[in-house]
């Protein structure tokens, strides 16, 4: 992939089904090649650990639409979208007692072909969903410099965010 010295390399789930040691080797190699060739690297992954370690900027996508974007610190320290909060909340934490248990995102992933084009794709799984969410797609709006979110209910989600992050 690097033989033609591309300006952009897209790695779609580059570490899926690899053990942790090999994952680290692959990611370090990608990072070294990126630096050596001055290539931009897009990593598509569901692994938030990879995102936290290797990303400069993050785009959280649900249903083919960006629901939140920002730099790594903004996304992990100040998430606004209920899906982003759910993803962060689903990561096992060693700093919490076992009684805390594992958390999941409510509901099941939707059949994307059945989601109305003018609705929020996450509405079927979101506990903050209102009629507005099922009839209008929320716009991506800036919540702080460089940090955007597409949700009509960011304020309600903030209380959950604070609970998840222990603020």
Q: Would you mind describing this structure in some detail?
A:
The protein is an alpha+beta fold. The protein contains 6 helices and 6 strands, in the order E-H-E-H-E-E-H-H-H-E-E-H. It has helices at residues 20-37, 48-54, 72-77, 82-90, 131-135, 154-165, and strands at residues 8-12, 40-44, 57-62, 65-71, 141-144, 147-149. Strands 3-4-6-5 form a 4-stranded antiparallel beta sheet. Strands 1-2 form a two-stranded parallel sheet. Helix 4 runs parallel beside helix 6. The longest helix is centred in the N-terminal third of the chain and has 18 residues, at 20-37.
Entry keywords:
167 residues; alpha+beta; 6 helices; 6 strands
Helical amount: 25-40%
Q: How can the largest sheet be summarized?
A: 4 strands, antiparallel
Output mean pLDDT: 89
Q: What is the number of helices?
A: 6
Oligomer classification = single chain
Structural class: alpha+beta
Strands across the major sheet, in which order?
A: 3-4-6-5
Low-confidence stretches: none
The percentage of residues in β strands lies in 15-25%
Overall number of strands: 6
State the separation between the terminal residues, measured CA to CA.
43 Å
Tell me, what's the shape?
globular
Order of helices and strands: EHEHEEHHHEEH
User: Radius of gyration, Cα only, in angstroms?
Assistant: 17 Å
């Amino acid at each position: 992939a690097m033989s033609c010295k591309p300006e952009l390399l897209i790695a779609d789930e580059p570490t899926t089904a690899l053990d942790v040691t090999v994952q680290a080797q692959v990611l370090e190699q990608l990072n070294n090649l990126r630096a050596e060739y001055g290539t931009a690297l897009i990593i598509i992954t569901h692994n938030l650990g990879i995102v936290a370690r290797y990303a400069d900027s993050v785009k959280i996508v649900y249903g083919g639409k960006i629901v939140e974007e920002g730099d790594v610190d903004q996304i992990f320290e100040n998430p606004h979208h209920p899906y982003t909060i759910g993803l962060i909340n689903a990561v096992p934490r060693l700093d919490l007692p076992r009684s805390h248990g594992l958390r999941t995102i409510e509901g099941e992933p939707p059949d994307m072909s059945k989601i109305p084009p003018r609705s929020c794709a996450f509405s079927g799984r979101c506990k903050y969903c209102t009629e507005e969410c099922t009839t209008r797609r929320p716009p991506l709006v800036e919540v702080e410099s460089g940090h955007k979110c597409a949700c009509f209910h960011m304020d309600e989600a903030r209380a959950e965010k604070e609970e998840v992050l222990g603020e």
